[in-house]
Design goal:
seven-stranded mixed β-sheet; six-stranded mixed β-sheet; 15 helices
C-alpha cells in the first residue's frame, strides 16, 4: 500500500473513532463503552498493519517476477496521487508512464528561435577524458602540423585498439594538450573553411552480418557514439546488448528542444535506428515526451522498428536512465546501450552520407547571454568562438552541458563530445549575510516551506552560490522525493563512502549515472557532492568486474 493511502486511511479511522468516543461519552455510557472503543481501535490498527504487510509482500513478489514497474500500484487501495493523476495527452498513442516524483528547475535564458547559421567556431577538439573507460594516455596517431579530414583517425585506446576515435572536422592539428600526469586532454584542430570528409565505403545493412557492421563502426568512428550501462562507459564491442535506449526529450534546466535538433534529419535518424536494431538481441526503445501541449516531432512519433514508451513528469523524466528503470530495470548482469538523438543522427549519416558527419545543433543558454539561441556547429567546438560578443558580463561560469550535471569550462575550452548545450551562470562568489536565516525567494527550491512552489511557472536567474557549506550527512528523505526510481539513494551514497560493495550492488548502483542523481544533489540539505560519490562507486564496481 502506498504511504499516502495508509496515512489517509489511518487519519480517517482516527477521526471516526474520536467522534464515536465523544458521542458515547456524552451519552454517559460509562467505562464499558470506552473499553469497546479502545478495542475497536486496536482491531483497526491490527487490520491496517496486516494490509500494509500484505501489500508490501505483493510488491516484492511482483518485482521478482517482473510484473511491476516502480510507479505501478498493485495495492488494494489507490494512492492519493493516483486519485488526482494528470490526464494523459490525446496525442499519445500508447500507455503513458506518469512519474509523480521529480522537480523542474525553471531558469531564465532558454534558447529560442530558429537555428542561427552565422555563428562559427574556428577550432575544435577531441577530448579523451570524455570517453569513460579509455586510458588517460591513448595512442595518438597524428602529430602537430598534420592535416586531417573529418573522419580520419586521431587516437585509440591502448587497452582496446579496435575502437578508433576520429576527427570531427578537417583541418590542421595545432596542439596535443596534456594535463596531470601527462594525460592527454585535447587534440586540437584548426578547421578548414570548406570541410573535407574521409569517404567511407558503402555498407549494405540487409546483406552485411552483425560482425561486419561492428567492424565498420569501429573503423569509421561510429562506435564512440555508443555508451554502455552499467557504468556509462564506451560500449564493449565484444558484447551484445540486451536492449538499446534513446530518450527523445530532455527535462534538464534550459535543455534544448530535441524537435528543433531533429528537424530536417529524419532520414539519418531512421537509418540510425535501423543500424541499432541490427546490433542488439533485444529491442530499441524510444522514450517519447508526453509533457507538452503539442505532440513531439513526427520524426520521433512515426519512427519505425522501435518500441515507443511515453513518459510524463517533471525532471528527471527525460533522463534515459529513468526511462530504462521504468521499462526494463538493470541488474548487475545486464548490458544495455544508450545514445542521444544527435548521436543517432551521426550514426545514420555514416550510411546515408557515407561520411562521419559530426554536425551538432547546440543550445546557448543562460540569463548572462544577450541572445540565448540555437547554433549549428560540430562536435568539440571552441566555446569562446560560439559565445563571442554574446555575453552580458565577464564574471560568469561557463558550463558544457546543463547546470546540474555539466562540466565547468574555461572561456577557451571546448564542448564535450556528448553535450549539445552550453550554459552561462553568474558566479556566486559572494557572502549572503544571514543567508541561513532569511528565506531566499530569488532561487528555485523544491521545499514547500517557501511560497515559490505556489507559482510553478516562475523562472529564476540562478547563480553558482551554494547557499551554505558542506555539513553532516543527515537522513532527510529529500532524495527519494525527487528521484522517480525504486531506490534508496541516501543509503546507497553511504554504502559507497564506506566501500561496502555488497550493499552498493543490493541498493541498485548499476542503475544510476551522474545525471540521474544530480537532482538529488540540488535538493541536498547536507550539500554533499553526490555525483562525485556515485562516480567513485561506479569506478570501484567496474574495477571489480
Amino acid at each position: 500500500m502506498r504511504k499516502g493511502s495508509t496515512r489517509l486511511l489511518l487519519i480517517t479511522s482516527f477521526l471516526f473513532l474520536q467522534q464515536l468516543a465523544h458521542a458515547q461519552s456524552v451519552e454517559g455510557s460509562g467505562s464499558g463503552t470506552l473499553t469497546l472503543t479502545l478495542l475497536a481501535i486496536v482491531v483497526l490498527i491490527a487490520f491496517f498493519v496486516i494490509i500494509q504487510v500484505s501489500d508490501n509482500l505483493l510488491r516484492i513478489e511482483a518485482k521478482k517476477t517482473g510484473v511491476e514497474g516502480a510507479e505501478t500500484n498493485l495495492s488494494i487501495f489507490p494512492g492519493v496521487g493516483e486519485l488526482f493523476k494528470t490526464k494523459a495527452p490525446s496525442y499519445a498513442d500508447g500507455a503513458v508512464i506518469t512519474l509523480s516524483k521529480g522537480f523542474d528547475i525553471k531558469l531564465e535564458g532558454a534558447a529560442t528561435g530558429p537555428v542561427d547559421e552565422s555563428v562559427k567556431a574556428n577550432t575544435f577538439a577531441m577530448q579523451p577524458p570524455n570517453f569513460r573507460g579509455v586510458s588517460p594516455i591513448p595512442k595518438v596517431v597524428v602529430e602537430v602540423g598534420d592535416t586531417v579530414k573529418a573522419g580520419d583517425h586521431l587516437f585509440f585506446d591502448k587497452k582496446n585498439t579496435d575502437v578508433k576515435y576520429v576527427a570531427p572536422v578537417s583541418g590542421e592539428v595545432i596542439a596535443v594538450n596534456r594535463g596531470e600526469r601527462r594525460a592527454i586532454t585535447e587534440v586540437v584542430i584548426l578547421a578548414d573553411k570548406n570541410q573535407q570528409f574521409r569517404e567511407l565505403s558503402a555498407f549494405d545493412l540487409e546483406k552485411g552480418s552483425r560482425e561486419e557492421l561492428v567492424n565498420f563502426l569501429l573503423d569509421s568512428g561510429g562506435w564512440s557514439l555508443l555508451r554502455q550501462r552499467p557504468y556509462d562507459i564506451v560500449a564493449n564491442h565484444t558484447e551484445v546488448p540486451d536492449n538499446i535506449f534513446i530518450s527523445t526529450f530532455d527535462t534538464a534546466p534550459l535543455a534544448p528542444n530535441q524537435d528543433v535538433v531533429v528537424e530536417g534529419k529524419g532520414e539519418a535518424f531512421q537509418k540510425g535506428l535501423d543500424v541499432l536494431n541490427k546490433l542488439t538481441s533485444g529491442k530499441v526503445f524510444l522514450g517519447l515526451n508526453a509533457n507538452g501541449e503539442k505532440a513531439p516531432s513526427a520524426i520521433f512519433t512515426q519512427a519505425q522498428g522501435v518500441e515507443k514508451r511515453w513518459f510524463q513528469g517533471k525532471h528527471p523524466s527525460g533522463n534515459v536512465g529513468i526511462q530504462i528503470h521504468h521499462t526494463a530495470p538493470l541488474t548487475p548482469k545486464s548490458c544495455v546501450w544508450t545514445l542521444g538523438v544527435q548521436e543517432v543522427i551521426t550514426l545514420g549519416a555514416l550510411f546515408t552520407e557515407r561520411r562521419f558527419n559530426a554536425e551538432r545543433v547546440v543550445a546557448l543558454t543562460g540569463a548572462e547571454l544577450n541572445a540565448p539561441k540555437y547554433v549549428r556547429t560540430y562536435i568539440g567546438a571552441n566555446i569562446g568562438d560560439l559565445l563571442k560578443d554574446n555575453l552580458t558580463d565577464n564574471h560568469i561560469r561557463v558550463v558544457s552541458g546543463d547546470v546540474l550535471s555539466g562540466q565547468t569550462k574555461s572561456s577557451d575550452g571546448y564542448l564535450n563530445f556528448y553535450d549539445d548545450q552550453i550554459t552561462e551562470l553568474k558566479e556566486g562568489d559572494y557572502y549572503d549575510i544571514f543567508g541561513w536565516l532569511l528565506p531566499d525567494l530569488s532561487s528555485p527550491s523544491a521545499s514547500k516551506a517557501l511560497p515559490t512552489w505556489i507559482f510553478p511557472d516562475t523562472t529564476f536567474k540562478a547563480d553558482t552560490n551554494t547557499k551554505g557549506e558542506k555539513r553532516a550527512f543527515v537522513v532527510t528523505g529529500q532524495y527519494e522525493e525527487v528521484l522517480p526510481m525504486d531506490l534508496y539513494p541516501q543509503h546507497l551514497m553511504k554504502a559507497i563512502l564506506t566501500n561496502d560493495y555488497e550493499k552498493m550492488e543490493g541498493l541498485g548502483i548499476h542503475e544510476l549515472v551522474e545525471e540521474d542523481i544530480a537532482i538529488c544533489e540540488f535538493t541536498c540539505t547536507s550539500k554533499q557532492p553526490l555525483q562525485q560519490i556515485l562516480r567513485k562507486g561506479l569506478d570501484m564496481m567496474h574495477e571489480q568486474g
